[in-house]
Design a protein that fits this description.
Elements: H1 3-14, H2 17-24, E1 30-38, E2 41-50, E3 54-58, E4 67-73, H3 74-85, E5 94-98, H4 101-117
Parallel strand pairs: 1-4
Antiparallel strand pairs: 1-2, 2-3, 4-5
Helix pairs in contact: 2-4
């Protein structure tokens, strides 16, 4: 995921009333962050769910508090995503760390954001 991709998703989310409305029901800001190992470093894909401004994507590490971390290997996640997109459901190869109850709190906003900001992308074979 590039910054240009993130910018397109955030533009779609700025215009999306469903995800913003769902976030307004939250009691505070929550984060879901993919923490992916790649070439000895970490790739971050972070979603923030904010009652004041809705859902935002970032390539930055989230704060430690109020974050559900999904930890895995970059290549394995890309391959699972590519296969799922091709019609072969493959569960994401990640391990949840942190407060897993966050997912239940943000599920409505997450689903709305996914519907509004999914950008068609080609995933090469890993």
């Amino acid at each position: 995921m590039s910054q240009a991709h993130v910018d397109l998703m955030n533009a779609a989310l700025t215009a999306d009333t469903a995800s913003r409305s769902a976030c307004k029901a939250l009691d505070r800001v929550y984060h879901v962050a993919y923490k992916l190992a790649r070439d000895g470093g970490t790739v971050w894909w972070t979603m923030s769910f904010d009652p004041a401004c809705g859902v935002r994507f970032s390539l930055e590490a989230p704060p430690a508090q109020d974050t559900l971390f999904l930890v895995g290997e970059f290549g394995a996640v890309i391959e699972a995503t590519r296969r799922t997109k091709a019609g072969e459901f493959t569960p994401p190869p990640v391990q949840a760390e942190g407060d897993v109850s966050i997912y239940g709190r943000i599920m409505t906003a997450f689903n709305a954001a996914q519907a509004a900001a999914t950008i068609d992308t080609e995933f090469p074979a890993a």
